[in-house]
Amino acid sequence: MSDWEAAVKGAAGRADDGESISRLLRAWRARVDARTVPELRYVHPRPGRRLSQQHVARMTGVSEGWYRALEAGRRHDFSEGFLLRVAAALRLSEDETLTLFLAVTGRRPPRPAETCGDLPQGVRALLEQQVTYPAYLSDGAWNIVAANTLMGEWFPWVLRPRPNLMRWALLHPEAREQMLDWEDSCARVYLAMLRVAANSNPTDAALRVLVSEILEADADCRRIWAEEFDVVEHRDGHVFRLRLPYHDHAEVRVTSHVLLPIQRMDLRFVFITPVDGPADAAG
Q: Which stretches of 15-164 are DSSP H helices?
C-alpha cells in the first residue's frame, strides 16, 4: 500500500474527522512525492518519499507550528498569501484550492486580474447569442467588460471608451433624461449599491476612486449619500422606466436580471427585459 493510499485509508477511519479540511490537507500532503519538489533538493538529510509538515512549512516560509495549526484546523486567521503558497506547495487543483479557502476563510480565493479577452468562450457565446434583449457583463466596479449588439443599440454609451454604468447613470446628463424618475428609481438605488460595495471591499482602489469621483462631481449624489442609509446589494428584479432614442422616446418599463457566471464569478451578467411583454423590446 502506498503512502497516499495509507493516508487516505487512515483519515477515512476517523469517523469524527468527517470531510474536514484537516483530513483533506493530510491526504493532499501525502500525495506529493518530496523527492520531486525542487525547493527540497538541497535539504539535508535528503527527504524521502514522504512530504512532512516541516517540509511544507519550509516551502511556504512559515514555522512548522504555524503550518501544523492549519492542518489541525486550530486557527482561521491565515492570510490569503499563505493559503496560496500552501496550495502551490501541495500542488492543489483549482477546485482543491477553492475548498481550502472556503474551509479556512469562508471566502473564495482571489482571482488574478483578467481582461475581456480572458472571458470563457461559453460566457462570451451566451452574451453574443442573446439577440432578444440587451445584455452586458460588468466587473465589481461596474466597468462594462462586454455587451451584446442590442445593448449598444439601446444604450450607445456602452460603446464609448472605458464605459462604466455608475458614472453614466449618476453623472451623465443623458441618464437623467433617459431614466425616468431619476432620483428615486436610479440615483438612490445605485448609491445604495455603491455603499454595499464600498463596505464589502474596503481595499478595492477602483471602488474608492469611483465613489469619490461621483460624490465630488455631483451635488445631488452628495445630498442623497448624506441623507440616506439604504443598502442594496444588486438590482436584480428592479423595475425602472426608460425613454430612449431607440424606442423613439416612448416610455418603456424594464427589469434587470443579475446572474453570476460560474466561470467568472467576479463578473455580473445582466439582462434587461421589458416588463410589459416582448413588444416593448422592438426598436
A: 21-31, 53-60, 64-72, 80-89, 94-105, 121-128, 149-154
User: Of 127, 131, 84, nearest to 104 (Cα)?
Assistant: 84
Least confident of 6-10, 101-105, 229-233: 6-10
Stated pTM of the model: 0.62
pLDDT of 131 above 80? yes
Q: Which residue has the cell 468562450?
A: 121
Residue among 58, 52, 65, 59 at smallest CA distance from 25: 52
For cell 506547495, the residue is: 89
Q: What whole-number distance in Å separates Cα of residue 50 and Cα of residue 81?
A: 25
What's the rounded mean pLDDT across residues 35-41? 80
DSSP labels, 184-206: IIIIHHHHHHHHHHHHH-TT-HH
What's the rounded mean pLDDT across residues 201-225? 87
Please tell me the distance from the alpha carbon of residue 281 to that of residue 283, in angstroms, as a whole number: 6
The residue with cell 492549519 is 70
Contact of 86 with 100, CB cutoff 8 Å: yes
Tens of pLDDT, residue by residue over 150-184, are: 999 999 999 988 899 999 999 999 999 999 999 98
Strand 239-243 to strand 251-259: parallel, antiparallel, or no bridges (unpaired)? Answer: antiparallel
Give per-residue burial for 29-56: e unless 16+ CB within 10 Å, then b.
Answer: bbbbebeebeebeeeeeebeeebebebb
Question: Could you write out the DSSP letters of every residue in 210-244?
Answer: HHHHHHHH-HHHHHHHHH-----S--TT-EEEEE-
Q: How confident is the model at residue 282 (pLDDT cuts 50, 70, 90)?
A: very low
Domains in the chain, CATH or no CATH each: 3-105 (1.10.260.40), 116-281 (3.30.450.180)
